[in-house]
Protein 1
Amino acid sequence: MNICVFLSASDLDERYTRAAQQLGRLIGEQGHTLVWGASDVGLMKVLADAVDSAGGRLVGISVGFLAAKARQLQSPNELIVGADLAERKATLLTRSDAVVIMVGGSGTLDEATDVLELRKHGIYDGPVVVLNTDGFYDGLQQQFARMDAEGFLPVPLAQLCTFVDQPEEALAVIEQHAPTRR
């Protein structure tokens, strides 16, 4: 299964690094492919290193202005460089069967809201899991719950995404709900 992970390319606290290592190890050990932003720095590097070390495959999707920070991949891995951020996001989702949203900044939040909007309209059918490491997304979860309760979401929040606290839970949700497209 191709699992897209949206996350920060920043060097962050050990609690976030540990979650990225655990998720990457699980993806690799379970024979999945990581589809990610291709950065060879920060949490993106930690995640990709863990997948690679555990025997998983890597599909990096970068963009021209970030290509210098992209991980250089050897076959059977793959690196794709898009023309702009919109193309990069579209390619990330086209190449994935499921999405995990990990900690990140405004870019990760942009990717997260984009995939949730696509799910809302039935355009992206893979499961979306928000890995709420150390309560990072508590505020977002509360906001989405309010949107749901007050009728701003045309489908229930539970149909858009699942919030979990641990990497193991994220993979369990994905494996339970993933479509069999590939």
Note: The chain has a mean pLDDT of 91.
Protein 2
Amino acid sequence: MKSKILALLCGVLFGSGLLLSGLGDPAKVIGFLDISRISDGSWDPALMVVMTGALAVYMSLFYLVVKPRVRANLAPVCETQYHLPEKKTLDRQLIIGAGLFGLGWGSVGICPGPAIVNIATLDMNLGLFLLAMLFGLYIGKLINSAQPDMVKAS
């Protein structure tokens, strides 16, 4: 129960930060991603400022708290072990997935975090985005589950 409450509090903190920074608004994200606006002065660097702040907090905590705890074989607060990525290389699956994510994000200015935060607006476009996101997750799961079979067949 403790981990669920902590997850809820972290989600509320994340969502509040998105709304407070204005990054729940797709137009604000598009304002950053559209670098052609630099020339006329309408480019919006807000996303870069928010991401820099988020990375500063994350990297500080990761290197000062998480890494030393991993080295000392200590568990996280609400889990039995840390689940850090083991793969250190780029592969085709990662590059294609990142490209598709970037195309979707750049096209509509919204990604899964803000989409979930904006559910309360009951915007029909957001509903379509969420359906498309769920469909994409389903397709990705099908592809991942078919991969071991494809390896066996070759």
Note: Helices lie at 2-21, 26-33, 46-71, 92-108, 112-117, 124-153.
Protein 3
Amino acid sequence: MTTERLSPPMRAGERETLRSFLDFHRATLAMKTEGLSDDDLRRQSSPPSTLSLLGLVRHMAEVERTWFRRVINGEDIPLVWSEEGDFQAAYDASKADGAEAFEAWQTEVAHARRIERAAASLDVTGYQPRWGEHVSLRVVMLHLIHEYARHNGHADFLREAIDGTVGA
């Protein structure tokens, strides 16, 4: 499978621009993980860090779920990888199954897209308990763009250490 990654528009409205940049970064993470075995995806290739590509995919499933379903949609649901609410649990991919992680991530991305499209505007808010603040959908989308961009930088190094693949 080859991931299609569309460049964001250079002239568009705010919502379309945010949506496009977020999808661009989602596709970048997919590209960085494409064609690797579960063992490769679990590989912790920057010691002493325990970070792996599979851990990043699992983490981003949590991020999508938390910000769109729990914060904006107000759903009372547990984290994907931790009933106890431990956000760090997603990073431990030592025994994780790649297909399960990608399915969870894709499911959460689909929910996020549905919630964003159904929102009346970028000014829709939800409560973020960790921040103790109400946040707008605009802030959530910007936060996710930032989160993906930061972790895609990590993914660059992890992928290069696995098989020499660079760029995205």
Note: The chain has a mean pLDDT of 93.
Protein 4
Amino acid sequence: MIMDQLLETIRTFDGVLELAPTEGSAFPPIAWGDHFFYYAPDGQVPEREQPYATIVTKNYPDDALSDLDHPDRWRLNIHVGRSTLRELTGEDSVDFAAVDTVLPHPVYRAQGWVSIVNPGAATRTLAVRLLREAHDAAHQRAARRDTTAPRKSMGTDGGL
């Protein structure tokens, strides 16, 4: 699965907000070329909410085990939760640079993230399913926040 195909699929999700920093943007150079996905139908990055999925195209200073600094290597990262992470990856030792394999995220596995370097035929269907589930979970979190957010009182003067 090439990255463009995956991006096209994610962009069809209802309410998705994609941040894709480029050179010259307000984002730091390390993020240029990467993609960050949120559930945000209003087009605003949610406060106190991490993306539910990312695509990274290079090694980061604290995250080099996937060996992404070679041409045509990239990694899909999806927040799936800890129980799904255990179901998908088990507890064996891991080659974080393995291609087209669902792996625990090299840095954020304890928070329930999986990663797939260069998703392909073996992981395509599962990757899309996990992305939809992560998107739906982000949608549900947003709905809960909306119903539990404190409402401003208009007071006795009708708020005037």
Note: Confidence is low (pLDDT under 50) at residues 151-160.
